[in-house]
Amino acid sequence: MGRPPCCDKIGIKKGPWTPEEDIVLVSYIQEHGPGNWRSVPTNTGLMRCSKSCRLRWTNYLRPGIKRGNFTPHEEGMIVHLQALLGNKWAAIASYLPQRTDNDIKNYWNTHLKKKLKKFQTGLDSHLSTPPADSSTCDHFSWNFMSDNNKQGSKLLLQQNHNSPNSSSSFYASSTENISRLLEGWMRSSPNPSRKVDEMILHENQNSQDQDLFKSRETSLVQDGGISNGIKTIPKEYMSVISDISACESSGVAEKTMNTNTPPPFTYLEKWLLEENAGQVEELMELPMIFT
DNA sequence: AAGTCTTTCAACCGCTAGATG
DNA sequence: CCATCTAGCGGTTGAAAGACT
Question: Could you tell me which residue ranges the Myb-like domain spans (predicted)?
């Protein structure tokens, strides 16, 4: 079999991270930057394996991570991207820069999958022609967006909007602790102003990313101009999508995408963004149908 | 109030691809 | 070319919290 897990070494700590460990890790990364994870446990004295350090950083401590409830728009994006890309959480996460792949994956598994299933069973009972393969979400997504499913659209419109306290309250308990500790650390560090500036820079970069994303979205819409929105998928995108679906169903998606041709994602991306811009409302409503 | 069940999500595991010597 | 190492990804697990009886 393969190599033993890196965490099998004696003395390597597992389980939840303590705020103290978080501070050690964050301060080290602030100093040296992320990367070279191998050396992190040795240099910091953390009794964690390098992998654990990296995961803790990328999924939890990295600046600019947004936590807490997903917005309806984010939900819509995830549902949509999942239908397009499958369980490529990292790829999906790249479209939601403030969310981690782990977060998205968890949210999908705990919330969205259930909602989709629930909705689909509801929809199936309404429609005389159920999808051929009811185990996948793809059919749901495309069917949902088709003209034939006005019922679905009406259904979703009847649902309540997200509760007003949909902000990240439940995250506060842990994050606030870490934030407090980090504040303390920044105050006590040799050059706090520099570090604060770096933090601010990160924040700005994130908002810039957002702006970039938005402007990209807008310009694409202006260029392309899909007036009918989701229900009208341009031919060139449709062929790409059907290619991918075919590949995926035959289990060769990865190989084909990775080797022979560059991923036709620019098309998908363009189509997706056009769609989102044109159909923001529908996307925002999408998750509400399941509540 | 106490016990049980369900849900959530942070963290882990195993695998793979790419880099390096 | 091969072996090894590292980073990254997706699936899974299990502890904690919340909901329910």
Answer: 9-61, 62-112
